[in-house]
Amino acid sequence: MARTDPRNRAVFRVAPGMPGVSLLTADFTTHEYTTHAHDTFVFAVTEAGGASFRTRHRTDQTRPGALLVFNPEEAHASRLDQRRRWRYRALYVASELVREVAETLGFRALPAFACNQIDEQGLVAAFGRAHEACAGEDRLAAGDALHAALARLLADHCSGRRPQLPSDDRIGRVIDYVRAHYAEDLSLEDLARQIDLSPFQLCRSFRRALGMPPYGYVTQIRLRAAIRLMRGGLGMAEAATAAGFYDQAAMNRHFKRTHGFTPRQLLKA
């Protein structure tokens, strides 16, 4: 189901018969993604236009006919700038599925991709076929196409190393605290107090370690909690407040800025 905004169209769905795989088809002229991270791998093919995106403390431009790749928990943001349109298709693939393919190729751990944008037409076409197949009803064809695309990507463009955890173990303690207390009315002072830093020091260390400020990370954890609650049957308003948002409107606003589609679309997928 598409968004009602005529300037921005986004269709999200869970791949039928493919646990751990979701699909997005987007055509944006105004949308801006706030800094966020997914708990899945993201593979996106730009079909027309493009946008600027920021990750790993640098900014780049998406290119038509190129493949964008983001590792789980890799912070990134994007926006349309001089180009007035960005049409793309994305697959969100659970780490477990990528690990299974990696193991067949001899990887001993969950791999990491070192490059965020790849210009290789055969590979881009393979992910386009995988997206199309996963949207259909033939599970055998979908599984085969996705496996083939992932295997090619892993074989040719993978460092073989897992993403590094934050080098500052104090930030790890803050992350654990957020995951345990996300539904509470947290403040910067609350988080900084856990590791005896000033709020300013915490913000600087957090950005260096995770590529986003503490507020952005807390928002991501709350969104993931709200998704779990909604998929478990809780209403949107109840899920929003249970996850720590002020109300449903606040959750909806953050959800659309992060995912490009609405919570209602997620539930109908």
- CA-atom Rg in angstroms: 19 Å
Query: What average pLDDT do the residues reach?
Result: 91
CATH topology of the largest domain: Jelly Rolls
Number of domains: 2
What do these coordinates show?
This protein folds into two domains: 8-157, Jelly Rolls; 169-268, Homeodomain-like (Arc Repressor Mutant, subunit A), CATH 1.10.10.60. Helix 7 crosses helix 8, helix 7 crosses helix 9 and helix 8 (236-242) crosses helix 9 (248-259). Strands 1-2-9-4-7-10 form a six-stranded antiparallel sheet. The protein has a four-stranded antiparallel sheet with strand order 3-8-5-6. The protein has helices spanning 95-104, 121-134, 139-157, 169-181, 188-193, 199-210, 214-231, 236-242, 248-259, 263-268, and strands at residues 8-14, 21-28, 32-36, 41-49, 52-55, 58-61, 67-70, 76-79, 86-93, 117-118. The protein contains ten helices and ten strands. With 269 residues, the protein is α+β, with helices and mostly antiparallel strands.
